């Protein structure tokens, strides 16, 4: 199993508040890793450290390392645009641009420079198919993405990430704003994609974590309490706190 991302003694402070307290975690290639834990425990903060999204927040201090393919992404030389192409991100609220479906999907590719139309057409079709939304939008590629349903918008946002061929996809509660049918479609799609991409998903939905992830990390108050195979975490956790959280005793 190849390790793609590794955090080593990672601490993050918002001003004086320590939101991550020395996280050591490894992410294996081709797996889905779920991050679970009660509200405010640091899941999203940790996720954002993996492609330096926290750089955008003022007064953030980070110590420790995040290695991506053995390179520390916090090196000053890191090209952040390149990093975010390799490690893409999907947010809780679908955030399509106010452009057509087609323009949304090719957005990142166009930033890279001109490409022949046939090549773009092919990438749009493949990305939308992989994101399980092609049948919904194939006749509306030139229509505004904002006119789609929330679930369709989220799948178009996933297609936009897939189009630039990332190695890793970070998903921050990607289905929590959606109805159960749309959530189910996205869950199935993520499961199908896991052979092509490495994914890390923050979720409050325990069924979702147990259905789709290979490994689960349980966070509490900025600490990583337990990290193991998902089956082990859900059926026979080593830590009492994990068991209490999974069984709904708090959080
Ligand atoms: N931009 C910020 N500025 C200051 N504090 C922040 C900021 N973002 C998060 N925090 C704080 O850091 C801690 C961890 O927040 P984070 O959003 O990572 O938790 P979470 O586990 O993802 O929570 P949720 O499940 O509610 O999304 C919380 O105490 C939160 O209030």
Characteristics of this structure?
10 helices, binds adenosine-5'-triphosphate, 10 strands, 251 residues, 36% helix, Rossmann fold, alpha/beta, 6-stranded mixed sheet, 27% strand
Map the helices and strands.
Blueprint: E1 3-14, E2 17-28, E3 32-36, H1 43-49, E4 60-68, E5 71-72, H2 80-86, E6 87-90, H3 101-111, H4 117-130, H5 134-137, H6 150-163, E7 168-172, H7 180-193, E8 198-202, H8 206-212, E9 215-220, E10 223-229, H9 230-235, H10 240-246
Parallel strand pairs: 3-8, 3-9, 6-7, 7-8
Antiparallel strand pairs: 1-2, 1-4, 4-5, 9-10
Helix pairs in contact: 3-4, 3-6, 4-6
The structure holds adenosine-5'-triphosphate.
Adenosine-5'-triphosphate binds next to strand 2 and helix 1.
Question: What count of structural domains?
Answer: 1
What gap, in angstroms, lies between the N and C termini? 33 Å
In CATH terms, what is the fold-level topology?
Rossmann fold
The value of Rg in angstroms is 18 Å
Mean pLDDT over the full residue set: 96
Estimate the helix proportion, in percent.
25-40%
Specify the CATH architecture: 3-Layer(aba) Sandwich
Ligands bound, unique: adenosine-5'-triphosphate
> How is the quaternary structure best described?
single chain
Low-confidence stretches: none
CATH homologous superfamily name?
P-loop containing nucleotide triphosphate hydrolases
């Amino acid at each position: 199993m190849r390790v793609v991302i590794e955090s080593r003694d990672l601490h993050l402070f918002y001003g004086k508040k320590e939101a991550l307290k020395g996280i050591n975690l490894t992410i294996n290639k081709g797996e889905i890793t779920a991050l679970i834990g009660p509200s405010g425990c640091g899941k999203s903060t940790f996720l954002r450290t993996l492609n330096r999204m926290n750089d955008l927040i003022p007064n953030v201090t980070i110590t420790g390392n995040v290695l991506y393919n053995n390179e520390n992404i916090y090196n000053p030389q890191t090209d952040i645009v390149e990093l975010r192409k390799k490690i893409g991100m999907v947010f809780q609220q679908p955030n399509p641009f106010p452009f057509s479906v087609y323009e949304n999907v090719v957005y990142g590719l166009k930033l890279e420079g001109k490409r022949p139309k046939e090549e773009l057409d092919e990438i749009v079709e493949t990305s939308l198919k992989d994101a399980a939304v092609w049948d919904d939008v194939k006749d509306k590629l030139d229509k505004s993405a904002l006119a789609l349903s929330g679930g369709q918008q989220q799948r178009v946002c996933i297609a936009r990430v897939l189009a630039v061929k990332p190695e890793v996809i970070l998903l921050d509660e990607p289905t929590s704003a959606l109805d159960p049918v749309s959530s189910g479609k996205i869950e199935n799609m993520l499961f199908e994609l896991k052979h092509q991409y490495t994914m890390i998903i923050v979720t409050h939905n325990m069924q979702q974590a147990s259905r789709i992830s290979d490994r689960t990390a349980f966070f509490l108050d900025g600490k990583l309490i337990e990290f193991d195979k998902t089956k082990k975490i859900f059926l026979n956790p080593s830590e009492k706190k994990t068991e209490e959280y999974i069984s709904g005793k708090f959080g």
